[in-house]
Amino acid sequence: MPWILLLFAGLLEIVWAVAMKQTAGFTRLWPTAIMGVAMIGSFGLLAMAMRELPLGTAYTIWTGIGAVGAFTVGILFLGEALTPMRIGAAVLIVTGLVVMKLA
């Protein structure tokens, strides 16, 4: 169960990061509200997952899901560049997540 909570916490991290981009410096109400709700949910689920998972593992996986997810959303929906260097960085993050999980 803690891994499922952590997965959803990471998915909510993607939501709040994308919503933050859409707030235009916190000048748009709905993206700002979505960001706030997603942040609270993400932190809450992370905290619940940390009851059973080690801090380093939980935090690394959570930030990794958010980073790679935001990277993917940026490319697919926001027109951000897909370059070999950025792909390499994402691969390194995912590799680190796998190694952290195995450790």
From TrEMBL:
<protein>
    <recommendedName>
        <fullName>Guanidinium exporter</fullName>
    </recommendedName>
</protein>
<dbReference type="GO" id="GO:0022857">
    <property type="term" value="F:transmembrane transporter activity"/>
</dbReference>
<dbReference type="InterPro" id="IPR037185">
    <property type="entry name" value="EmrE-like"/>
</dbReference>
<dbReference type="InterPro" id="IPR000390">
    <property type="entry name" value="Small_drug/metabolite_transptr"/>
</dbReference>
<feature type="transmembrane region" description="Helical">
    <location>
        <begin position="85"/>
        <end position="102"/>
    </location>
</feature>
<dbReference type="GO" id="GO:0005886">
    <property type="term" value="C:plasma membrane"/>
</dbReference>
<comment type="similarity">
    <text>Belongs to the drug/metabolite transporter (DMT) superfamily. Small multidrug resistance (SMR) (TC 2.A.7.1) family. Gdx/SugE subfamily.</text>
</comment>
<keyword id="KW-0812">Transmembrane</keyword>
<keyword id="KW-0813">Transport</keyword>
<keyword id="KW-0472">Membrane</keyword>
<dbReference type="Pfam" id="PF00893">
    <property type="entry name" value="Multi_Drug_Res"/>
</dbReference>
<feature type="transmembrane region" description="Helical">
    <location>
        <begin position="59"/>
        <end position="79"/>
    </location>
</feature>
<dbReference type="InterPro" id="IPR045324">
    <property type="entry name" value="Small_multidrug_res"/>
</dbReference>
<keyword id="KW-1003">Cell membrane</keyword>
<keyword id="KW-1133">Transmembrane helix</keyword>
<feature type="transmembrane region" description="Helical">
    <location>
        <begin position="27"/>
        <end position="47"/>
    </location>
</feature>
<dbReference type="GO" id="GO:1990961">
    <property type="term" value="P:xenobiotic detoxification by transmembrane export across the plasma membrane"/>
</dbReference>
